[in-house]
Amino acid sequence: MRISTRPQFEEHRRQAAARNAGHRKEVLVCCGTGCLANGSRAVAEAFATEFARQGLAADVTLFTKKTGCHGFCERGPLVVVQPRGILYIQVKPRDVAEIVERTVGKDEVVTRLLYKNPADKQKVQHYGEVPFYKNQTRVAMRNIGKLDPTDIDDAIAHGAYDGLVKALFEMTPEQVIAEVEASGLRGRGGAGFPTGRKWRACREAKGDRRFVICNGDEGDPGAFKDRSIMEGDPHSVLEGIVIGAYGVGAHEGFIYVRDEYPLAVVNLTIAIGQARQLGLLGENILGTGFSFDLRISRGGGAFVCGESSALMRSLEGKVGEPRAKYVHATERGLFDCPTVLNNVETWSDVGAILQHGAAWFALVGTDRSKGTKAFSLVGKVKNTGLIELPMGTTLRRIIYDIGGGMLEDRPFKAVQTGGPSGGCVPESLLDLPVDYEKLTQAGSMMGSGGMIVMDDRTCMVDVARYFLQFLTEESCGKCTPCREGLKQMLAMYENLVAGRGKPGDIERIEALSEGMQLGSLCELGKSAPNPVLSTLRYFRDEYVAHVEDKRCPAGMCRDLTGYEIVAELCNGCHACTLACPTDAVTGDRKKLHTIRQEACISCGACFDACPTEAIRFFAKAERAPAVAGAGA
Amino acid sequence: MNVQPCVETGALTEILVRYPAEEPSLIQVLQDVHRAYHYLPCDVLLKVSEALSVPPAKVFSVATFYRAFSLTPQGRTVVRVCTGTACHIRGSSQLIDELQRRLQVGPGGTTADMAFTIKTVNCVGACAMAPVLIVGEQYNGKAKPAKVAKYLGLGEGERRDED
User: Do both B85 and B39 map to the same domain?
Assistant: First the structure.
């Protein structure tokens, strides 16, 4: 049943919407990776069983939808009961019977499963009133959580492919590019290159064969927006790609998906199959004469393949090594043909821009960064998960209003953005409006939208070491500054965190950073010193403490830190004893506990477990003789 | 070249018909081979080289470049510890230590009885649940070192080194 005219498509959408309207009550169960890990599949199955068992009144059409990620992963599994939009968190299969009987059957609310706002201790009933959701503006993630990603009709009922229909039937390819240019959309993979300009360059390049590529190789640790979009609303991505292909005149495309995202591959494969069946992909799309098809290619688990030229080499079946950027991919990209490569989120934005217009998209944002941006807000905040906000929102608003503040109300230290190419932004810059330029000025970058919040228990030297280790493993080895520079830099950091730092190390690190920035071939190497330089810029005192005092102010570097119990605060609850992996904590219940220093591996598990803050850390260097003499 | 014991190559024939016999198919073919054999056996790689007309050196270069591929046999259950940033600051290194203590092998290693292979993975994108430990297909969010034995399906407190 291929659709071959515009009225046919509109009729199809009308029927899909009518079918959805017939579901007077819908139960939406989040089945994103996060909620699945929390057991949401069992919850969805329990709903189906319960509907059959309770056999509710015939006029209530019941429907359980397994949706994509709602974003509020930490409180999963999440369940939303429509039409009232009641949000239940941390739902277990045993709660399902009560939800069906009371909320679905009698429109009552099961209070104990509601979200409690930690700010005012009030229970919140409706999805839209939860501060985590209330403060968001969703464009790229417009339909995630509302629809079943494996059902194209559900997507169409929610407006999917409207933008494509408008582009194909009302606009020339030239007009499509002009619209994207006018929207001010910039690459959401992090570099921020204007999307429209990239398309125009490709359209104008010489060549008979052109490609469009979707970069779904979201490798930045701490970022998962692209995974959620591909899993939760694959049609928004497909729609954008087809529009882009129409704009630049490509007939072949690829979606390059990370090997670590199996559910994204499954949902995209289903979506492509359904789109082909309806005639939204393949030969003669919607009867317009325009043909385009695309394939999924699974990555091989190499971070550098997120770099566009390396990704194209990988699609060619080669080792994913980047090449110098004086060759523009828009002229000579995949198989040396003109190629447009955009990030998953960028493609998802394109459909919305065509549907609602460039002016609508540019309504929010800052001067040079228009529209909204998706972030994964993780680390030491209360509400972790996936969010989308207007460009220019301040970090403070993100962390405190949406994120609900710091976990356990510990002091905020920094927020890391931009992954291994980004940097750490300190407390003094909390009022920074987040856009491409502002983050770069602060020594970080937008990157693919990971925001990792760190508290006083995060050692900034160790954070830089972590990224260096990551990049040392992921450097492709093609150019020397990156391959050897990272290795030497990591060796220096391993000395720092182990208390073997020497005077002059900090200066040597800075000099090497400069060399790598100047000499590396691709952005992986050029931006590798960012985590180093930004932590040095804002947290130099921590480096000095490691080098000169052999002390880790955060108490996280194990070789420098020991733990002890403060006698007056210990209530003998045993929490530390149970948490200790090496049985180093001894003491009878309700009596004072002690840590046997010779067995302690300074992992900090006891510190995190203690409810009375009776465990404190100390710098080993300051009391080396005492510890040595402590014996048992 | 024959560092690996010969394996049955029937599965390879099935894999090769799925893709055009050319270089761009190489990674997709290797992925399917990896799924069928749980690693890339040496003699299978040589056959892939022949079938796709890609020199063995290039096949091995690709096979060793990508993290998804292993040239040594994997344990029956692959245990993956996410070492993404969010997991790192929420204590993934403690999970690795605990796995090492219990299984007597470190990241990249396989237990002598071929039951488990331990791997680290740079972010599985489940950062809101950090730290994450994946045993086979089972994701364990907010994983705790004290629960590692349970995640592995070993009895609570039972240490394999005491077996």
Answer: no
